[in-house]
């Protein structure tokens, strides 16, 4: 990976002089504006955290004052690029050997900081305390390790949707990511460091160490070193992964000759760890002893974890600590043990950013006055290295891992994000329709698609900034970065959680923003909006001339046709077609309030969505129009939609009345993605939805209704409308290119009041 | 007999009320076996009779006699079977009751080599039956059961006899090569709660690998002289004292063998220290699992048996301490004098039962 730069270790030897060159752009990004620091120094790795501000360009739209006719051009609004400052959290993980070099680097590049202290945690903090104080001139303020760990754990569970995963060694995808339950508490955290701590976490500030064990990572390491004369922890794990434990362990079949049937103990079960090494007068291989030791310790920890989980009636059990940290061998043995002892009732969960928990927690401790937990944060895919498998067969780059710098960047989001209150079951909601992590064919296809489309994106990005001569150079950098991400994902599809079309699109947006292309489509959107507006009145007039039933159909077609110019009239029945039910429903009483997630600019919003909304308003239904907070592709943003609706209101009394009477409300979705995650929406939107007693959700377009939310279950009526503009996806869903999806759903149990009775008595 | 993973336990009932007539009738073979077993305290290189455990003047099946307790390594089973062949056991018209995994594993060898049919019995059934019987008859006029008074204080900690008058429910922890934990509600109603592979076999196996010792006695002898704090990392080694945030004492073990991560420490410890650390690690772990099971099953009486506890006061005291300390006095650890022989006794009783029921 570009950001994981292998340092020249031969030059460093033990002197750690400045001849180790750190590529500053790549590793300690935004260091010049760093405000707060925290450091977590473990036995072998150091994790540095800092909070910094990022200055980047954003595209803003501003309405011309049309009353004074000053707009000599016919343009609707003005687009300007403005500098905006946002907050970002940086986390960097590196080997302790680099600590002095890194501190020197930070010292030399730190300019704007006013901070006087650095929060520190981890077992190695006291060892390096003096060095940190001398190099950085900051006071080292030590924080309790476990408190930091829990704080960090809460933070990632709350802010990173695919943080937790189940490990399945032999499955198609090694990592199976879990949707985070909206309420992350209570949970059990089993931290396996040199010993084991079992902590029950009940709320942000309430946690308790309910137990522990002295048989942990230190036991594996210490006993392993004695038995095999192998010094390094990683090497011990390597040995273990090659060994056969049955030559050292006494199995049930060694005692019984087979299984112990009446107790359901199979013959291969370990009856006595190392039981054969007492009786056999033979030499045991290092590999076999290491394997036996690994099984012994993993099983023991798994058993205790289960006993504690049972006693406290907890089913969410997360494992962390250096024993686990990204090591497939230990994740596998722990998973096996938990499955065995709970008969599958409890799953062992692991965390993608487990290594950062202490640093995150220490940072949060130091930043309490800024109330970081009041905000929502999002993982920046452009700046984060992502999870890497360390299993040799999964990751050929594994050898390069030690000595690399691993990074995590989290953006502070402008808006606080929450669940849509209308999700039927928030804990089982999965936004994405296809999980590319598990579906190899789909993954190959989409990675190929995105790579093919890259040149076009680059061209458009350059074209969006004609006044900037260096745009081409920046666009090239963007292209390299995104191409590299795609290549990484080809080998490590689990790097950022489940790989989906949404995550591929979002990664592209993050990379574009990284290189200051905040809105490549701004000019295209402007032009399309402008053109569509000119046809608005004509379109409304022709719709009004239709009969009621003809008009309803034309309105549905209008929304569908909006995103495909050459769509024409597609004969019904459509691929998914519940239009008849929808029409029947429209004959009934009006909805109280409809929430409409809009899609594209231009024809789609102006000639498709607005007329549809107009009809709803006329029926007496209130409408909430939810649009993106920031640009993504040619999707209409909230800023643009504000201007567009004002312009339409000026021509259309229905829209005008709707706005004036507050029956038509525009809200931000909180998203800047072409897709839609209903579990991360603007808190204000959720509030409005609740206040207005929303009873209909309309989702439009491929990104929001097909790639995501196709299977989303809502607690009220919903309407999903899209034309499938991708032949592969159409094929997957059993249709042809430009197939139509018109999915009207009524949740079970609510149908009686919504649809008219079929027979009259 | 009870054929375990490491040891074979054999109990032999020697009637002492044999009349002259009976003696006349007795087959020469049986006589010679009795003489061999009762006149020796060691058999071959590895067989041992635990004379101090002998139960005298017992009435079984209407006969009075002594119950002898003999053990030898499971490794010696082929030689034992060979002996059965040489001494023509099959001509005795007696049934050999066997329990433990070996009853299944060696069944075929007994049949093929010695022409003997084994009556195979479930080891947990035998364990419970034998335990309840020995507790009932007592240990030659003394109680079979004991506990430690003041287990948390090394100065005043004392072994005290007691009676298991009303033994149910009890958590029965059987520590052999591996460990089985049973919740026993009545004579015939019990369940296996869980088990762990970290048992006596693990202690001995790892001790052999780490110190080069060969026997359990040797390992225990070394352990009794060693200091585990040279090997284990204590809470105070990490935090400088108690970890107050979590109420952990500085003297608690934070990481078993944790010091062994460092090369200097590895070079500075003795074999005795290693053996002691191994013993403490295994014992504490069993204590910890047993305690959690007791809490989960809501049982306050925890009975520890199995040959791991033989001549092993370090472990018995440690278990007594662990139960008391971590449960804040709620749990009591109980021990039995005939530690590892209950399975074999239970098997013998099955034989007698078969003899009584025509």
UniProtKB/TrEMBL annotation, chain A:
PANTHER family, alphabetized:
4'-PHOSPHOPANTETHEINE PHOSPHATASE (PTHR12280:SF20), PANTOTHENATE KINASE (PTHR12280)
Write out the GO biological process terms. Answer: coenzyme A biosynthetic process
The name of this protein is 4'-phosphopantetheine phosphatase
Quaternary form?
A: Homodimer. Interacts with PKM.
Q: Which residues cross the membrane?
A: none
GO MF annotations, alphabetized: ATP binding; hydrolase activity; metal ion binding; pantothenate kinase activity
Sorted alphabetically, the keyword list is:
Acetylation, ATP-binding, Coenzyme A biosynthesis, Cytoplasm, Hydrolase, Manganese, Metal-binding, Nickel, Nitration, Nucleotide-binding, Phosphoprotein
Gene3D superfamilies attached here?
3.30.420.40, 3.30.420.510, AF1104-like, Uncharacterised protein PF01937, DUF89, domain 3
- Reactions listed under catalytic activity: (R)-4'-phosphopantetheine + H2O = (R)-pantetheine + phosphate; (R)-4'-phosphopantetheine sulfonate + H2O = (R)-pantetheine sulfonate + phosphate; (R)-4'-phospho-S-sulfopantetheine + H2O = (R)-S-sulfopantetheine + phosphate
Ranges of residues in domain Damage-control phosphatase ARMT1-like metal-binding: 451-736
Functionally, this protein is described as follows: Phosphatase which shows a preference for 4'-phosphopantetheine and its oxidatively damaged forms (sulfonate or S-sulfonate), providing strong indirect evidence that the phosphatase activity pre-empts damage in the coenzyme A (CoA) pathway. Hydrolyzing excess 4'-phosphopantetheine could constitute a directed overflow mechanism to prevent its oxidation to the S-sulfonate, sulfonate, or other forms. Hydrolyzing 4'-phosphopantetheine sulfonate or S-sulfonate would forestall their conversion to inactive forms of CoA and acyl carrier protein.
- Give the range the annotation lists for the signal sequence: none
Automatic annotation (TrEMBL), chain B:
Which Gene Ontology cellular component terms are annotated?
cytosol; nucleus
What does the record give under GO molecular function? ATP binding; pantothenate kinase activity
Intracellular or extracellular location(s): Cytoplasm
User: Might you give the EC number(s) for this enzyme?
Assistant: 2.7.1.33
SUPFAM superfamilies in the record: Actin-like ATPase domain (SSF53067)
| Signal sequence bounds | none
One biological process term in Gene Ontology: coenzyme A biosynthetic process
The record, for Pfam families, names:
Fumble
Q: Report the pathway entry.
A: Cofactor biosynthesis; coenzyme A biosynthesis; CoA from (R)-pantothenate: step 1/5
Catalytic activity of the protein: (R)-pantothenate + ATP = (R)-4'-phosphopantothenate + ADP + H(+)
What keywords does the record list, in alphabetical order? ATP-binding, Coenzyme A biosynthesis, Cytoplasm, Kinase, Nucleotide-binding, Phosphoprotein, Transferase
Q: Which Gene3D superfamilies match?
A: 3.30.420.40, 3.30.420.510
Q: How does it assemble?
A: Homodimer.
Q: Hey, which family's this protein in?
A: Belongs to the type II pantothenate kinase family.
Q: What is this protein called?
A: pantothenate kinase
């Amino acid at each position: 990976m570009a950001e994981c730069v292998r340092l020249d270790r031969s030059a460093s030897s033990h002197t750690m002089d400045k001849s180790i060159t750190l590529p500053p752009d790549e590793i300690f990004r935004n260091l010049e504006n760093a405000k707060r620091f925290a450091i977590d120094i473990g036995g072998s790795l150091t994790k540095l955290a800092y909070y910094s501000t990022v200055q980047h360009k954003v595209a803003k739209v501003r309405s011309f004052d049309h009353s004074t006719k000053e707009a000599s051009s016919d343009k609707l609004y003005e687009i300007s690029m403005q500098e905006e400052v946002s907050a970002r959290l940086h986390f960097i993980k590196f080997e302790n050997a680099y600590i002095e070099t890194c501190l020197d680097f930070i010292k030399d590049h730190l300019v704007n900081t006013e901070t006087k202290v650095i929060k520190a945690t981890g077992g190695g903090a006291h060892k390096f305390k003096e060095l940190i104080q001398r190099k950085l001139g900051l006071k080292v303020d030590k924080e309790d390790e476990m408190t930091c760990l829990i704080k960090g754990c809460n933070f990632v569970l709350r802010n990173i949707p695919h943080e937790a995963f189940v490990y399945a060694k032999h499955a198609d995808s090694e990592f199976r990511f879990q949707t985070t339950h909206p309420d992350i508490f209570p949970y059990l955290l089993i931290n396996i460091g040199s010993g084991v701590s079992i902590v029950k976490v009940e709320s942000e500030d309430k946690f308790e160490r309910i137990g522990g064990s002295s048989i942990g990572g230190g036991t594996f390491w210490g006993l392993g070193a004695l038995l095999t004369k192998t010094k390094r922890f990683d090497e011990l794990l390597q040995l273990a992964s090659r060994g056969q434990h049955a030559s050292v362990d006494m199995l049930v079949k060694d005692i019984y000759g087979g299984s112990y049937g009446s107790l359901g103990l199979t013959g291969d079960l370990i009856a006595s760890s190392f039981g054969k090494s007492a009786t056999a007068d033979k030499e045991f291989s290092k590999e076999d002893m290491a394997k036996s030791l690994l099984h012994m310790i993993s099983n023991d920890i798994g058993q205790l974890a289960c006993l504690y989980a049972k006693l406290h009636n907890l089913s969410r059990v997360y494992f962390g600590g250096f024993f686990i940290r990204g090591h497939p061998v230990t994740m596998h043995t722990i998973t096996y043990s938990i499955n065995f002892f709970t008969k599958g009732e409890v799953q062992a969960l692991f965390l993608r950013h487990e290594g950062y928990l202490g640093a995150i927690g220490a940072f949060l401790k130091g930043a309490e006055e800024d109330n970081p937990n009041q905000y929502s944060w999002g993982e920046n895919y452009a700046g984060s290295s992502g999870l890497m498998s360390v299993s040799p067969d999964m990751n050929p780059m594994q050898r390069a891992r030690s000595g690399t710098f691993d990074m995590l960047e989290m953006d502070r989001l402008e808006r606080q994000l929450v669940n849509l209150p209308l999700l039927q079951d928030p804990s089982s909601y999965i936004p994405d329709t296809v999980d590319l992590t598990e579906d190899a064919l789909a993954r190959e296809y989409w990675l190929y698609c995105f790579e093919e489309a890259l040149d076009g994106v680059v061209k458009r990005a350059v074209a969006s900034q004609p006044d900037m001569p260096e745009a081409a150079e920046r666009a090239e950098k963007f292209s390299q970065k995104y191409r590299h991400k795609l290549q990484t994902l080809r080998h490590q599809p689990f790097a950022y959680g489940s790989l989906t079309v949404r995550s591929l699109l979002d990664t592209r947006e993050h990379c574009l923003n990284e290189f200051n292309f905040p809105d490549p489509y701004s000019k295209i959107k402007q032009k399309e909006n402008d053109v569509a507006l000119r046809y608005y009145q004509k379109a409304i007039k022709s719709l009004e001339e239709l009969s009621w039933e003809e008009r309803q159909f034309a309105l549905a077609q209008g929304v569908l046709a909006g995103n495909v110019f050459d769509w024409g009239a597609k004969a019904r029945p459509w691929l998914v077609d519940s239009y008849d039910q929808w029409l029947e429903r429209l004959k009934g009483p009006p909805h109280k309030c409809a929430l409409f997630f809009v899609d594209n600019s231009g024809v789609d919003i102006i000639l498709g969505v607005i007329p549809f909304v107009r009809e709803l308003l006329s029926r007496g239904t209130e409408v909430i129009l939810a649009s993106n907070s920031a640009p993504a592709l040619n999707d209409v943003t909230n800023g643009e939609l504000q201007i567009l609706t004002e312009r339409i209101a000026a021509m259309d009394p229905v829209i005008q009345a709707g706005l004036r009477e507050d029956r038509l409300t525009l809200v931000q979705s909180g998203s800047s993605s072409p897709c839609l995650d209903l579990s991360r929406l603007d808190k204000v939107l959720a509030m409005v939805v609740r206040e207005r007693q929303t009873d209909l959700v309309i989702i439009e377009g491929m990104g929001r209704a097909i790639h995501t939310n196709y299977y989303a279950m809502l607690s009220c009526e919903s309407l999903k409308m899209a034309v499938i503009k991708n032949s592969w996806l159409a094929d997957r869903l059993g249709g042809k290119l430009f197939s139509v999806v018109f999915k009207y759903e009524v949740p079970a149990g609510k149908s009686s009041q919504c649809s008219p009775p079929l027979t009259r008595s | 007999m009870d054929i375990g993973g490491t040891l074979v336990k054999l109990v032999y009932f020697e009637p002492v009320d044999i009349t002259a007539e009976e003696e006349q009738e007795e087959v020469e073979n049986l006589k010679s076996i009795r003489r061999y077993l009762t006149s020796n305290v060691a058999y071959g290189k590895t067989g041992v009779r635990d004379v101090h455990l002998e139960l005298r003047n017992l009435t079984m099946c209407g006969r009075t006699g002594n119950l002898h307790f003999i053990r030898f390594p499971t490794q010696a089973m082929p030689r034992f079977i060979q002996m059965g062949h040489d001494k023509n056991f099959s001509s005795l018209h007696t049934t050999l009751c066997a329990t433990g995994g070996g009853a299944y594993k060696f069944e075929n060898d007994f049949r093929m080599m010695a022409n003997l049919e084994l009556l195979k019995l479930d080891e947990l059934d035998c364990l419970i039956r034998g335990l309840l019987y020995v507790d009932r008859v007592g240990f030659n006029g003394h109680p079979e059961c004991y506990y430690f008074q003041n287990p948390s204080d090394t100065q005043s900690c004392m072994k005290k006899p007691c009676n298991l008058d009303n033994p149910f429910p009890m958590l029965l922890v059987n520590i052999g090569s591996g460990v089985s934990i049973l919740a026993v509600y009545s004579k015939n109603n019990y369940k296996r709660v869980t088990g762990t592979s970290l048992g006596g076999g693990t202690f001995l196996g790892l001790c052999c690998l780490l110190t080069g010792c060969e026997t359990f006695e040797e390992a225990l002898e070394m352990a009794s002289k060693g200091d585990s704090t040279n090997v284990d990392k204590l809470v105070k080694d990490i935090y400088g004292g108690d970890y107050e945030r979590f109420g952990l004492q500085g003297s608690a073990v934070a990481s078993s063998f944790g010091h062994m991560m460092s090369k200097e420490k590895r070079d500075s410890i003795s074999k005795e220290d290693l053996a002691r650390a191994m013993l403490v690690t295994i014992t504490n772990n069993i204590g910890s699992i047993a305690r959690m099971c007791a809490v989960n099953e809501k049982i306050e009486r925890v009975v520890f048996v199995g040959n791991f506890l033989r001549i092993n006061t370090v472990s018995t005291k440690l278990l007594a301490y662990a139960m008391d300390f971590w449960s804040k006095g709620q749990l009591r650890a109980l021990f039995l004098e005939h530690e590892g022989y209950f399975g074999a006794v239970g098997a013998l009783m099955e034989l007698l039962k078969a003899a009584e029921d025509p």
